[in-house]
């Protein structure tokens, strides 16, 4: 933003008792800042959107994102506190999540019990949304963010970035291509109509697979090769870390079913994972924390693909 635009937003923030701290993320339509409340130094995240950069469709998307976030209250979904507006900007005042996203925290996910705990929290959020007719449509490692810091014993994750979220009927289908390449379903790759709730479950399957394998289930050196892998190949569960995780692997395999009808709902998937809760956590020496080279490969493989914006 140029100085005059900073002035416009700055006056708004001063009037509402906020001061900017540092940039957390930026995209095509604006910037996300960490900010502090003057009243108590409380930390918040400010998503500042320049509405002049939005076309009509994008404006509708933003307004629906606001509507959805205002309507939901769940312990594993980022909270929207307030919305402020000027002539040229919309500012979303949101919960600040200091723990970093799951992509950057993969190295801290070292046991099956941790994977299951995170998976259950994501599924709890998805079940809550789906029961209210809301599909997220951009489930990925970067959109699962920790409220808890790595040093804290309790793990709390929250689903963020509702830019593609929409209301759908129980049998509705969509033809809109959205999301991030490694996480989109075969139906989306083929540009076919898809069931948004089942697309969310596919994305969850990719996330769960990556948490264990430290790589994507469907990968490639180009966008074309990734697309071919998604539509034609089956995920591999032959890596050593899957060895004694047959029940968890079977749930992930179902989530990654090419056919939507074979993919479990959020309710069914959560029930399956709840049954794993009784398992004891494996010793660190038997965990799957050592495969860092594949984490580096996962990071590298994202470099050639366009990233979704805020």
Automatic annotation (TrEMBL):
Any one GO molecular-function label of the UniProt entry? protein serine/threonine kinase activity
Q: Where are the transmembrane segments?
A: none
The molecule here is called Protein kinase domain-containing protein
Superkingdom of origin organism: Eukaryota
UniProt key word ATP-binding: yes
One protein family per Pfam:
Pkinase
All copies of the Protein kinase domain together span 18-274
Say which species the protein is native to.
Compsopogon caeruleus
**Assigned keywords, A-Z:** ATP-binding, Nucleotide-binding
Specify whether Isomerase is a keyword of the entry: no
Provide the Gene Ontology terms for cellular component. Answer: cytoplasm
InterPro entries cross-referenced by the UniProt entry: Kinase-like_dom_sf, Prot_kinase_dom, Ser/Thr_kinase_AS
């Amino acid at each position: 933003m140029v100085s005059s635009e900073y002035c416009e937003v700055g006056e708004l923030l001063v009037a509402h008792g906020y001061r900017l701290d540092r940039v957390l993320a930026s995209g095509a339509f604006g910037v996300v800042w960490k900010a502090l409340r003057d009243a108590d130094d409380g930390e918040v995240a400010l998503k500042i959107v320049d509405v002049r950069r939005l076309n009509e469709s994008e404006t509708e998307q933003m307004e629906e994102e606001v509507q959805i976030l205002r309507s939901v209250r769940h312990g594993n979904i980022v909270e929207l506190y307030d919305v402020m507006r000027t002539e040229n900007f919309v500012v979303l005042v949101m919960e600040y999540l200091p723990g970093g996203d799951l992509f950057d925290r993969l190295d801290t996910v070292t046991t099956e019990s941790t994977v299951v705990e995170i998976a259950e929290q994501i599924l709890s959020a998805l079940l809550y949304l789906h029961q209210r007719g809301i599909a997220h449509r951009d489930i990925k490692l970067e959109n699962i963010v920790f409220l808890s810091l790595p040093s804290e014993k309790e793990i709390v994750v929250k689903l963020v970035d509702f830019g593609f979220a929409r209301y759908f009927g129980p049998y509705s289908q969509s033809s809109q291509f959205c999301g991030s390449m490694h996480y989109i379903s075969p139906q989306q790759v083929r540009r076919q109509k898809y069931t948004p709730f089942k697309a969310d479950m596919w994305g969850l399957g990719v996330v769960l697979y990556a948490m264990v394998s430290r790589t994507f289930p469907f990968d490639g050196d180009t966008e074309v090769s990734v697309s071919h892998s998604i539509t034609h190949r089956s995920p591999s569960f032959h890596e050593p870390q899957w060895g004694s995780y047959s029940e968890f692997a079977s749930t992930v395999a179902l989530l990654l079913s090419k056919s939507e009808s074979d993919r479990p709902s959020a309710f069914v998937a959560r029930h399956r994972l709840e049954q794993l809760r009784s398992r004891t956590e494996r010793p660190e020496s038997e965990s799957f924390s050592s495969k860092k080279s594949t984490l580096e490969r996962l990071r590298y493989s994202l470099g050639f693909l366009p990233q979704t914006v805020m």
